[in-house]
Amino acid sequence: MSDNNKTVVDIDRSVYDIKDVENEQDFYRMEDGFTEDIVRKISEEKHDPEWMKEFRLNSLKLYNELEMPDWGPDTDELDMNLISSYVRSKTDMKGKWEDVPEDIKNTFERLGIPEAERESLAGVGAQYDSELVYHNVKDEVADQGVVYTDMESALTGEYADMVHEYFMKLVPPTDHKYAALHGAVWSGGSFVYVPKGVKVDIPLQSYFRLNAAGAGQFEHTLIIVDEGADLHFIEGCSAPKYNVANLHAGCVELFVKKNARLRYSTIENWSKNMYNLNTKRALVEEGARMEWVSGSFGSHTSYLYPMTILKGDHSTMEYTGITFAGKGQNLDTGAKVVHQGKYTSSLISTKSISKSGGIGTYRSSVIINKEAKHAKTSVSCDSLMLDSISRADTIPGMDIRTDDADVGHEAKIGRISDEAVFYLMSRGLSEEDARAMIVSGFANPVSKELPLEYAVEMNNLIKLEMSGG
Amino acid sequence: MSEQSLLQVSGLSSAVEDLPILHDINLTIKAGETHVLMGPNGAGKSTLGYTLMGNPHYKVTGGSIIFDGQDITNDSPDKRAKAGMFLSFQNPLEVPGISLGSFIRNAYHEQTGKPVKLLQYKKQLAEAMDLLTMDGSYADRDLNVGFSGGEKKKAEILQMLMLNPKLAILDETDSGLDVDAVRTVSKGIQEYQKKKDGALLIITHSTKILEALHVDYTHVLVKGHIVTTGDGSLVEEINEHGFEKYVRCEGCDGCSPLK
What we know:
The complex is a heterodimer of chains A (469) and B (259).
Chain A: E1 7-8, E2 28-29, H1 36-45, H2 50-65, E3 87-88, H3 102-110, H4 113-120, E4 123-128, E5 131-137, H5 139-143, E6 147-150, H6 151-156, H7 160-166, H8 177-185, E7 190-194, E8 204-209, E9 216-217, E10 220-225, E11 230-238, E12 246-248, E13 251-256, E14 261-269, E15 274-277, E16 279-284, E17 289-296, E18 301-304, E19 307-310, E20 316-325, E21 330-339, E22 345-354, E23 359-368, E24 376-385, E25 391-400, E26 406-415, H9 418-425, H10 431-447, H11 452-461, E27 466-467
Parallel strand pairs in A: 4-8, 7-10, 8-11, 9-12, 10-13, 11-14, 12-15, 13-16, 14-17, 15-18, 16-19, 17-20, 18-21, 19-21, 20-22, 21-23, 22-24, 23-25, 24-26
Antiparallel strand pairs in A: 1-27, 2-3, 4-5, 6-7
Helix pairs in contact in A: 1-2, 2-8, 9-10
Chain B: E1 5-16, E2 19-30, E3 34-38, H1 45-53, E4 58-67, E5 70-71, H2 77-83, E6 85-88, E7 95-99, H3 100-112, H4 118-131, E8 142-143, H5 149-163, E9 167-171, H6 179-194, E10 199-203, E11 217-222, E12 225-230, H7 233-241, H8 244-248
Parallel strand pairs in B: 3-10, 3-11, 6-9, 9-10
Antiparallel strand pairs in B: 1-2, 1-4, 4-5, 7-8, 11-12
């Protein structure tokens, strides 16, 4: 259709943009920048065990030595000297929703967090800036022996040894510059342990909210699903928009033991001043299964490629992702998988939508090592550009070192076809509805992987209202 | 109602990217009538279907289209659909992520503005699919995605039966179909004919699909002109002799319709 003033509008994010400014003075805010002095102060504030203090300082050293990533979107506008590494609200973590301070509670209530907990979650953690403000697990889940707590409590509590054993072993600070930064200044996040054979029927959720301007959020998520256990974990993230850059350099480490299954779903809706330089990785043992569902809607710039290491024989992974790059956004997303065990299989399926000059890049890497006999992989990536000023790139990499791998790859980049719009209109749909139907149909393979409430949230995020109609 | 024409096309000309395709088309269809539009490849038959339905790629350069008493010459396709016009596409588009069943329900809701009664809708859909020998599972499959040529055409006829338009334009619905599929599609068209005052404009260049259908008028389109109009027997004649005698006259500019 030639009528240019009818387009899919940007995601309506007004509910996420509600700021909580007046109370910011009450917050403890670390001075900006990343120095040894600052790292020592964070460690002190957080009452770290000695090993953690050393870990932080070593990580900082690495951070200063490592080079910036040499691929992906430009991060020149991110001035690390203007980022505060640690912002703590005036409250301690609460176990009861009523005890969370009113203003913070209001923010989460607007985002629908407590409702979701009541209706469909086994446990919820809510992080506000650098620290968790609320954490709760339903009794029946706790009774099964499931541990779901904030990282700080885990570090000194009953599972301290386990945390010490696993913390940043899968994503070591040497991995890349922002992993090193994370190791130095991490704060908040969740620790989950599901004991052998325990199946958690309803999902656990963490919600990360970065409220303070010019702050960084560096939460650490560590999940261990023991042999034969089963878990679905959901994380949601949002932040109000500021005119200064914010930084998110979180880290997610997932250990999926023999014959276990973990599904990790993310709805990410950071504001458009956010640099989202996040690292996620899963180690999958024999016969185990890792499933990722990922929706990336927000941020100014993203580098996000969840990685799966199929270590054990017969281990499998599936990655389903969607990225929506609107005006001013440069989102570089995808997935990485390493096949190590025999008879391992991976399935990567991504969708990317770009509009109003947004740039969506799909980047993936599949590595099948020579030990990984009879490995199987299938990669498919579809991109949809909604106008002629947007951009979609596809950079799939494959490194196959066996001669018996079963490899499939499919990539499609397209625009909304005028003929398809006409076809739908000829059945009585308005032009706006026709376009919306095509876009939501395109996103459907991802939304149908999400629990209903989150599929609804995602559809709200891809709010396909039309302007100028 | 039968006295008043449902579709009144007067002096219609249209072009694609400044290339004139249709010239001075006059066509009147009354409620309940079945018209056949024939002509050799490239005559502009599909262009007429698209122009009537309002494909923005096809620009009206002259004349008017009156449908059910309203001038719809400049209306968008969705308005025409809501007024009761339907086009069965020659090459139906594939739309991933939307099931055939929910798409028809959506369209039905858009056209009637009424909430769809789910049970009744499902029953009706199942009956229509049965008539067209479509497996019920197609309702849950993505719209036309991975459908064979025959399945796509059946899905178009299914939409026609469910949406029950006042005028259905069928663009080459028989092309690329095997004998059995043509027969099935024809059965669907007969079902539509049986319904009250449903009118048809069947665009085709073969005659197989017409064998079991009652035809009121036949028009022959050559080089963007309707060169002759007759009754149903014209179909027989073309079946025997082809378009040769109509095509031959193309050399003379402004060629008058043959007797």
